[in-house]
Amino acid sequence: MKFYNTLSGLKEDFHPSDTTVKLYVCGITPYAPSHIGHAMFSIVFDVIRRYLEFKGYEVKHVQNFTDIDDKMIKASSEEGITTTELSERYIEAYLREIHTLNVLPAHVYPKATQEIDKIIDIIESLIENGFAYNQNGDVYFRISANDEYGKLSQRNVSDLLAGARVEIDDKKEHPSDFALWKSRKPNEPSWPSPWGHGRPGWHIECTAMVTHYLGETIDIHGGGQDLIFPHHENEIAQSEAYSNTQPFSRFWLHNGFLQFGENKMSKSLGNIINVSDLLEKYSPDAIRLFFLNSHYRSPVVYSEEALTAQERASGRLKNAITLKGESKSQDILNSQPFVDRFVAAMDDDINTPRALAAIFDLVRDINRGHEEALSISHAQLTLRELTKVLGLKLDDNSKIDRDINSFIQLLIDLRSGLRESKQYTLADNLRKRMTELGVILEDTAQGTKWKFTRR
Fold it and tell me: Phi/psi at 15 (nearest 5 deg)?
């Protein structure tokens, strides 16, 4: 099995350093609803994990939440709530949505605010060893102390300019020195530290989480291509300086950009599509097929036509599995060639388009074999196994889930109407009955929220 390693720019043979593959994926900053870019990286690394497990590896998967940063503080201030309340809302929604998309949960979901002690320990060590410096409560990493800085993004220190999420500050020794700790500003969350009250910078949390949960060297570090610089570049620098161990990660895997027409999908351009909206229109299988029909390192162009086509494609998969598989014929459809093609494709840097081509050729032969009265049950089991590696469920439960969600929202709207017309007894009875059925309502300034609870 080969993976394309961003660090070397080459496809390299993959062998884990231990019996368990250590996988770390950079997660979301929960300050707004999750968008389909979040769905994309979640599905990509879910498939990578599933395939590793299919090949017989054990995987320990860690994915973080950046629950404190400038965006979190700004969004929580605008809503008049704490960053904790904001993060809990959007983390819960994200986990619910990726569950609907059949994404396996990570084994650990650490949060930046839960790693403050570890972060402080790492920063203290970096200062002690000359890799960082304190400027009146702000602590920066000294990139001039790292001869290899720029090796992931192929950038030279002398050519670096302040860019996306690289802060210009007169207190820095070099414009691209980056913040490890930020001193407290008015009305911001803060924690005590040897340098005064403050909060961690963006990059240091991942070093703390990786070393805490996976150790000083991991097998795979994942994320979007937009994170290569500065986030992952800075992460390598501070991690290897802290541990005095190389490599920090043996493989760096990055998924491609999501585009809307000719433009990159981004909040600044106003072309963001939320996961919840996407799930209202398309099944989880169709959404997964949409992303997997492109290689994970390639850009993906959002298209409703393509999603509709994948809805039809998922129907073809379901039909092939539900055909009557047994036959009086002794002739059995041989599915092994399709398995071989699938494995060869996935072994070649998770080439899901080629893997899907093998799967749909198997579907074609299952349909043909059914018409010719061959025994297709074994081939159907193979189809089920291969599609499971790609996280496809091939059932109608997702539609049922969407219908249930829509019905609950209808009841919430009905209750709101009753309250507006001052029919409070009926509204209270409706809420009580929904609670008995396991649907908990919460009235907020942003409207009525709901969640399931165990009865």
Answer: -140, 125
Residue 455: pLDDT over 50: no
Statement: residue 199 has pLDDT above 90: yes
Contact between residue 116 and residue 200 where contact means Cβ atoms under 8 Å apart = yes
CA end-to-end distance (rounded Å), the chain = 46
| Angle, alpha carbons 438-444-449 (nearest 5°) | 35
Q: Is 62 in contact with 27 (CB distance < 8 Å)?
A: no
Alpha helices in 336-452 (DSSP H): 336-347, 352-371, 377-389, 397-420, 424-436
The alpha-helical segments, DSSP class H, found in 262-376 are 275-281, 284-292, 304-322, 336-347, 352-371
What is the per-residue pLDDT for 436?
81
How many other CB atoms sit within 10 Å of the CB of residue 176?
A: 25
- pLDDT value of residue 160: 59
Distance of CA 162 to the CA centre of its chain: 27
Q: How far apart are CA 89 and CA 6, in angstroms?
A: 34
pLDDT above 60: residue 168: no
Paired with 125 in beta bridges are: none
Strand partners, 139: 134, 181
Report whether 238 contacts 206 (CB < 8 A).
Answer: no
**What pTM does this model have?**
0.85
Tell me the sheet residues that pair with 141: 132, 178
How confident is the model at residue 268, as a pLDDT? 66
Mutual angle of helices 116-128 and 233-243, in 10-degree steps: 70
